[in-house]
Amino acid sequence: MKIAIIGGGSVGLLCAYYLSLDHDVTVVTRRQEQAAAIQSEGIRLYKGGEEFSADCSADTRINSDFDLLVVTVKQHQLQSVFPSLERIRKTNILFLQNGMGHIHNLKDWHVGHSIYVGIVEHGAVRKSDTAVDHTGLGAIKWSAFDAESDRLNILFQHNHSDFPICYETDWYRLLTGKLIVNACINPLTALLQVKNGDLLTTPAYLAFMKLVFQEACRILRLENEEEAWERVQAVCRLTKENRSSMLVDVIEGRQTEADAIIGYLLKEASLHGIDAVHLAFLYGSIKALERNTNKVF
Amino acid sequence: MKIAIIGGGSVGLLCAYYLSLDHDVTVVTRRQEQAAAIQSEGIRLYKGGEEFSADCSADTRINSDFDLLVVTVKQHQLQSVFPSLERIRKTNILFLQNGMGHIHNLKDWHVGHSIYVGIVEHGAVRKSDTAVDHTGLGAIKWSAFDAESDRLNILFQHNHSDFPICYETDWYRLLTGKLIVNACINPLTALLQVKNGDLLTTPAYLAFMKLVFQEACRILRLENEEEAWERVQAVCRLTKENRSSMLVDVIEGRQTEADAIIGYLLKEASLHGIDAVHLAFLYGSIKALERNTNKVF
């Protein structure tokens, strides 16, 4: 099966390594330099102190040869990928972005491709243009967004036990389930500059997170609030020593995923006339922090 | 009358200029360099495009010669001033700090001085070690904290029309009236990096500020909430183009007055078992911003 991975970040390299064990994989990168390195060296994966490697093709362009494209670039980089995807023949495309900002784009994107969306629950850190550290074993969960699900089910048979690929029936439930966790944990840890576990151990922070949670729940119309709140707290506990991706982005002066995570919620709140006072404040503060870190202010 | 102004910042230089028109004023500075400059050049004041000057003494030590000391250093610098004040003979001391963090200190400070507290409603920007720009005409309002008020009333007769000094009967009412305004405007503008007026024009920010206001009101046991909320909004309107002092401190990488303003409220909340979820979050976020700006994190 011919698969293209769009994006050579941590998730892109992780997917490329594991999928190349069963499929013919090409990594499509923005930089020629990275494509050349992957083409000549393949991809290395570190896991539990061991090193593994896999051969991979690489390119800087997307062509029409693939049975499946896996889009792993961040949500704010999607706009530069869409035009290329509109030029190729109809195929299967799986979007693996954090947050749900891309959902508003995909709803308006009528191109005839079979579209799937998914979430990544692995921990992965890119070490170089060709190497990735698989720091946390998890899963990829996917669902049909605008497609027949059985087509991709066939593609994803026989995958590696450290890289399970799980089908879920309801894309909205799948994505909102992760979004509510990210919306609660990421902006707060980024603004307070604390580890995930500190949101549980400082009572005022936990109470503030609950206010954010309630706002996000109303916007997403989640069915089982109590279960979702338990899950938010469970993730804080399980990742208590971790710095959230948004905190790391802020520290390293990178653009955060505030638009993908909070931006989506604010847009939905505005569409349905729902109050989002805490989320609007968090969004404004994270955006100010991005400007400040980048010395534009 | 012999008056010492402790601190050569914007408020110190402003007080020194105006009080020296009627009194024998000495500015006490931390740096020898600034004391020498004031001693030789006097103080220049800019106002409405004009320049004024006044002769002033200066020193780096506080001695026992003064009828009144006006302490103008910031609240977080007070700890280095207290020991000197404990060594001199009993006199009148007026504390002009922002916020109320120093109130907890003063309550435990039993030294026999006649203690007064006040607020500064002037706009002033220090231009150099000896020059200050009087950017906004206002008033100094003061009240007896642990003293007979009539003693200072006599000292403050005959002052300049651009520098009114007004007596208020209730120090708690005076200080909390300013604190509630600072607590609402300063942390929010610093985190969102917006001008004061933007807190009114963005509905979600106004609603968030209201939540902060309600928390602070409960902690301070303010009598007339509605009037106080009107005043907060009036200050936002009147200073709509201004950047709050906390925002400027954050931008310039200085320590903010978060302890003096929010720290006092959190301590009071904790003493009386009152929830302060929003204030605790704002405090944590401002402190993180201070660390971040100072590159300690």
TrEMBL record, chains A, B:
EC number: 1.1.1.169
SUPFAM superfamilies: 6-phosphogluconate dehydrogenase C-terminal domain-like, NAD(P)-binding Rossmann-fold domains
Residues annotated as domain Ketopantoate reductase N-terminal: 3-146
Similarity comment text for this entry: Belongs to the ketopantoate reductase family.
Recorded catalytic activity of this chain's protein: (R)-pantoate + NADP(+) = 2-dehydropantoate + NADPH + H(+)
Keyword Oxidoreductase: yes
EC main group: oxidoreductase
Pathway(s) this gene product operates in, as recorded in its UniProt entry: Cofactor biosynthesis; (R)-pantothenate biosynthesis; (R)-pantoate from 3-methyl-2-oxobutanoate: step 2/2
Functional description taken from the UniProt entry: Catalyzes the NADPH-dependent reduction of ketopantoate into pantoic acid.
Residue stretches making up the Ketopantoate reductase C-terminal domain: 177-290
GO molecular function terms noted in the UniProt entry: 2-dehydropantoate 2-reductase activity
Record keywords, A-Z: NADP, Oxidoreductase, Pantothenate biosynthesis
Pfam families in alphabetical order: ApbA (PF02558), ApbA_C (PF08546)
Name this polypeptide is given: 2-dehydropantoate 2-reductase
